[in-house]
């Protein structure tokens, strides 16, 4: 009843796909109306989304994809979020449909690769690999996010990124596709999937047999490095800007003196100048204004134009 009232109040009855939500609800898929997105984002920022569909296992994902097929047939698009750890979501929220893909499912080793769901949190993969003695992915330790989001962003450190470990990527957009690593043009924080609205459903990652204790030691080293260099106790969305070629965005920002700069509840971190932290109920406007100030400061003093790594969604 409450959902129906919400649909009415949001004028969602005008949406041609509204009745098909019953297909999902009837199969137990979580469907929320007017869910405030700041509850999901690592930044703790973001207003209400009209509809959020949250499959919680691979079967529910299948139902969700059936539902999305209908949507795509209507020519209607949808937004995908994973761990929402690289996103700035508008205070006005998101109109239309959000599909939230972040759940745990079985990880399968086929003798060469581990096969993981696109919705799998990276932290779970690190734990699995540490326990099972699969090395090679330790560089992903401490990156909060899912496999799908990491494939889109080609997430990693300054020297290693998930693209180097990817062998196969299965996606869905009104039908399934399979890619090999070479098809996706992985480069620094880039993959060709950034330009499509394909959902990353399954990924094969290259691993090597290694002693669990050695893996755990490496994981600890990565986590310690992060704890020293990043402000991890306050909400953020990680690095604000990508590193321009031959420069570190953090170093440039530090040199132009933006450290500690504050707009409303958003502040440039004292620990890492390329992080904005939400120190006091920051709005998306606070963050956008601060991003502009940071970018302008670097451009005025160095002529270098910084490109955002954080993705802005909604409004
Ligand atoms: C404290 C902190 C530290 C961080 N450190 C790093 C770091 O060291 N290196 C780094 O690269 N990043 C870092 N990040 C940023 C972020 O964690 C990564 O970019 C992460 O890979 C994003 O994954 P996600 O699931 O949260 O994606 P989201 O933020 O939810 O989404 C990012 C993009 O991926 C898309 N997407 C998400 N899931 C899917 C899917 N299944 N299929 C298709 N598209 C999808 C979204 O539409 C969006 O375009 C950090 C963030 C924080 C908060």
TrEMBL record:
GO terms for molecular function: FAD binding; UDP-N-acetylmuramate dehydrogenase activity. Transmembrane segments: none annotated. One of its GO terms (biological process) is cell division. The keyword 4Fe-4S does not apply. The active site is at residues 189, 239, 309. GO terms for cellular component: cytosol. Its cofactor is FAD. It catalyses: UDP-N-acetyl-alpha-D-muramate + NADP(+) = UDP-N-acetyl-3-O-(1-carboxyvinyl)-alpha-D-glucosamine + NADPH + H(+). Belongs to the MurB family. This is UDP-N-acetylenolpyruvoylglucosamine reductase. It comes from Psychracetigena formicireducens.
């Amino acid at each position: 009843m409450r959902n129906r009232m919400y649909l009415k109040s949001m004028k969602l009855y005008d949406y041609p796909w509204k009745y098909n939500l019953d297909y999902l609800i009837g199969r137990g898929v979580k469907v929320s109306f007017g869910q405030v997105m700041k509850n999901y984002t690592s930044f703790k920022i973001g207003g209400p989304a009209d509809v959020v569909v949250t499959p919680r296992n691979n079967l529910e994902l299948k139902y969700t994809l059936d539902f999305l097929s209908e949507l795509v047939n209507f020519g209607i698009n949808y937004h995908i979020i994973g761990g929402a750890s690289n996103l700035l979501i508008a205070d006005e929220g998101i109109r239309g449909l959000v599909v939230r893909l972040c759940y745990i499912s079985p990880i399968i080793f086929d003798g060469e690769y581990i096969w993981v769901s696109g919705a799998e949190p990276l932290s779970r993969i690190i734990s699995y690999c540490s326990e099972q003695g699969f090395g090679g992915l330790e560089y992903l330790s401490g990156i909060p996010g899912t496999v799908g989001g990491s494939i889109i962003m080609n997430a990693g450190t300054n020297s290693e990124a998930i693209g180097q470990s990817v062998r196969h990527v299965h996606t869905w957009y009104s039908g399934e596709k399979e890619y090999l690593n070479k098809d996706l043009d992985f480069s620094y924080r880039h993959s060709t999937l950034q330009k499509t609205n394909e959902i990353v459903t399954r990924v094969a990652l290259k691993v090597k047999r290694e002693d669990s204790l050695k893996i755990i030691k490496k994981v600890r080293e990565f986590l310690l490095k992060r704890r020293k260099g990043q402000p991890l106790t306050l909400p953020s969305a990680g690095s604000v800007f990508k590193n321009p070629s031959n420069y570190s965005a953090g170093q440039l920002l530090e040199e132009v003196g933006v450290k500690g700069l504050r707009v409303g509840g958003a502040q440039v971190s004292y620990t890492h100048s390329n992080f904005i932290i939400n120190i006091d109920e920051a709005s998306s406007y606070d963050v956008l204004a601060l991003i502009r100030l940071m970018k302008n400061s670097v451009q005025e003093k160095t002529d270098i134009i910084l490109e955002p790594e954080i993705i802005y969604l909604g409004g």
